[in-house]
Amino acid sequence: TALTRGGIPADPSVQVTGIRHQARDRARGNSLPTAMGLLKHRAPPPEQVWSRHVTPVAPDLLIWGPKLMDTVELPLLQRFDYQGRTVAWGKMGAGAPLVMVHGTPFSSQVWRRIAPWIAQDHTVYLFDLLGYGQSDMSGGDVSLGVQNNLLMALISEWALDRPEVVAHDFGAATVLRAYYLNGFRPRRLTLIDPVAMRPWGSPFVTHVRQYEAAFADLPAYAHTALLEAYLQTASHRGLPSDALAIYARPWMTALGQPAFYRQIAQMDQRYTDEIEPRYTGPLECDLTLIWGAQDQWIPLSIGQRLNGLLKPQRFIPAPGAGHLVQDDAPEAIVEALRTAVAK
User: Fold this and answer.
1) Residues with Cβ within 8 Å of residue 107, at least 6 apart in sequence
2) Coil, strand, or helix at residue 61?
3) Distance CA 102, CA 89 (A)
4) For residue 340, how many C-alpha atoms fall within 13 Å in the half-sphere facing its CB?
5) Beta strands 122-127 and 61-64: pairing type?
6) 52 Cβ partners below 8 Å, 6+ apart?
7) Cis peptide before 59 (omega within 30 of 0)
8) Residue 88 DSSP SS3
9) Percent of the chain at pLDDT above 70?
10) pLDDT single digits (tens) 112-133
11) Given this model, what pLDDT does residue 56 score?
12) Rounded Cα–Cα distance for residues 177 and 164 (Å)
């Protein structure tokens, strides 16, 4: 089936969902469709089609276009019991295993524009950390001190042997803690703006830690305004309304509002202090370090320091991207992963 240069089907029997988003994405400076094009792949069985925006067409092809899928949410259909607490997870694709670990205050939905590309030749595993997304928010420990043990339990549950891992922010800290404290050795590791070194944590974090109960009881309108303003600071380009809604939704429920402030209140630099002295040279795996060049949460200077300590095979500043590189420059992540696999 032929496609035009712009990705519009030359064959009218071919359907491309979300095509209306192309003009908006071009206006926002997003370049993945022109840089990488739309991809054609054999369709999986119907039960494996992962979202309503991946459409079987003409008659057995899929047209994939991650930049067209701003509103797609990745389904986490599986549940894992971790010490009496429910963890939501899912997987897609076929091939070598790759685990994606999100950061705070997000969920596995940060990978919605990355995972479909990688699932072309990997089995991609996604999950929500304890206290985030669709996982248990009822209370208890949601700090970095528990998440690395959860990660190891999931890898055991999935029976994975040295999977590739991609991790962001607190997720990257979780993987580094698993590496240094649990003996985890991934085959390849990509860290994106990791929470890994002092200093981290904003004045807002300090204030919430001091007055958690007051924040947890804010009127809904005040919580919404504060939450959305906070989320927007993660993006250099600015989050569109659909992305903002995806990230805010888990924190807007009766359980979610106090859970949002709980996870902030439990942020503690001692969890990275515990492993930072061990950054004394290259890891025992291929390492790529990606950093948003305009990250206002953890500046690029921290990334440059970490680069000097861990000596990754690749250090990639992402121009025009803030802390949330997955939204500001998803093509940088996809390209980095493809490059690492090719080496």
Assistant:
1) 128, 132, 133, 134, 247, 250
2) strand
3) 12
4) 27
5) unpaired
6) 17, 72
7) yes
8) strand
9) 79
10) 999 999 999 999 999 999 999 9
11) 27
12) 16
CA–CA distances in Å: residue 98 to residues 45, 82, 92, 148? 21, 21, 10, 17
Q: Can you tell me whether residue 262 is helix, strand or coil?
A: helix
The pair of three-digit structure tokens given for residue 331, joined into one six-digit string: 């093509």
Could you tell me the end-to-end alpha-carbon distance of the chain, in angstroms, rounded to an integer? 32
* DSSP β-ladder status, 61-64 and 85-93: unpaired
What's the average model confidence in pLDDT over 204-223?
A: 92
Report the pLDDT value the prediction gives residue 50, as an integer from 0 to 100. 36
What is the value of pTM for the model shown?
A: 0.81
Instruction: Report the distance separating Cα 222 and Cα 22, nearest Å.
Output: 34
CB-based burial label for 99 (10 Å; 0-12, 13-18, 19+): buried
Nearest partner of 70 among 125, 41, 127, 110, judged by Cα: 110
Split at pLDDT 50, 70, 90, the class of 143 is: very high
Tell me the pLDDT of the chain averaged across its residues.
Answer: 83
Distance CA 8, CA 24 (A): 15
Structure tokens belonging to residue 100: 């994606």
Taken in order 314, 320, 322, 325, the sign of the CA dihedral is negative
**Preceding amide of 116 cis, omega within 30:** no
DSSP designation for 91: E
The predicted pLDDT at position 155 comes to 98
Q: Which residue is associated with the tokens 């590496």?
A: 179
Q: How far is CA 66 from the centre of its chain?
A: 14
